[in-house]
Amino acid sequence: MSLRNFMYHASWILPVANAAGKTEVPLLVTNSCRDTVWPGLFTSGGTGPETMGFELTTGSTRNLSVLSDWNGRIWGRTNCTFDGKGVGSCGTGACGTSLVCSATGETATLAEFNLEAHADQSFYDISLVDGYNLPMAIQIIPTNGTSVPPSNETNLICAGSLQGFDPNKNFNPYNTTKNPYYGTTSTHPLSFDTKMSQADISHWCPWDLQFHPVEEVGNTRPPFDPCLSLCTKTGKPEHCCTGKKHNSAKTCKANYYSKRAKAVCPDAYSFAYDDDSSTFTVPTGTGFEVVFCPVGRSTVIKKTLGGTSGARSLETSLFAILAGVLIALWFS
């Protein structure tokens, strides 16, 4: 039984608590691309998975687990070659010369997680802040003891490449009841972008930001067209939202790269202060599946729900934290 069929018939997976009181959380990585992908992982806090990099052939899923305090990211590396000692190179997403990553990678689409963020909530997102290389989806895996929002508020898709992109602007994956679509059904359907055409998808990356520069001749683009962000290319504070003059939402605005990235993937982070239209939340202990090259179109969950997702926006979550602190002080 595939994961999606299993998720359709099971509402929870039993979590395991470790000695430190943290919950073991399922973390699945699936490759739906036509070619092999080499996922890279990086842990910036908490207890991460047992491996930080591996080969994932087309159509396969790797079952991992992390603890509920994990803070980290996952991305896909492409066109890699490694020897028997795990030393080699990748076309995109390289984290040095090792199969197993010990640092963050180069330009790539990112799945970012902060599983023990605030108020018993896990924060997660798809980020194009550093650039783009592969389409990506994140869907939640409900676990026993977690009451999760409807899956059409939590399962997001970024379809920024022609691979897997459905050109039908009225795309409807719910015409069949045989399988759920990335954890959702016609009862709680996902909302999709209706503006992007095949031409838009194949030409959204600005010429000057192409990861593999090609001569600008008409509208010709390579089939695989990874994209640098303006921050990654220039490193300038005004493009990276850094430095005293550019380190706030008031002083750092979307640039021409982030505007195009946001148009292609409305639910993804496009620059550093894109929080409220890009951060998703679910109760801590919820599991996740990261899918490379999902089939369909980008979701517009935030727009449909008016900026909220997972039952609460980032702003609402922070307000709840402050309210809890004030109540605790009042009764202390």
Would you mind describing this structure in some detail?
The chain has helices at 3-9, 198-203, 230-234, 237-240, 256-264, 301-304, 314-331, and strands at 16-17, 23-31, 38-45, 61-67, 71-77, 81-82, 88-89, 110-118, 121-127, 131-132, 136-141, 156-158, 227-228, 280-283, 287-292. It has one domain (3-331): Sandwich (Thaumatin). The chain contains seven helices and 15 strands. By secondary structure, the protein is α+β, with helices and mostly antiparallel strands. The radius of gyration is 20 Å and the shape is globular. Keywords: Disulfide bond. Disulfide bonds join 33-293, 80-90, 95-101, 205-227, 231-240, 241-252. This is Osmotin thaumatin-like protein.
Secondary structure elements and their pairing?
Elements: H1 3-9, E1 16-17, E2 23-31, E3 38-45, E4 61-67, E5 71-77, E6 81-82, E7 88-89, E8 110-118, E9 121-127, E10 131-132, E11 136-141, E12 156-158, H2 198-203, E13 227-228, H3 230-234, H4 237-240, H5 256-264, E14 280-283, E15 287-292, H6 301-304, H7 314-331
Parallel strand pairs: 2-15
Antiparallel strand pairs: 1-2, 2-4, 3-5, 5-8, 6-7, 8-9, 9-14, 10-13, 11-12, 11-15
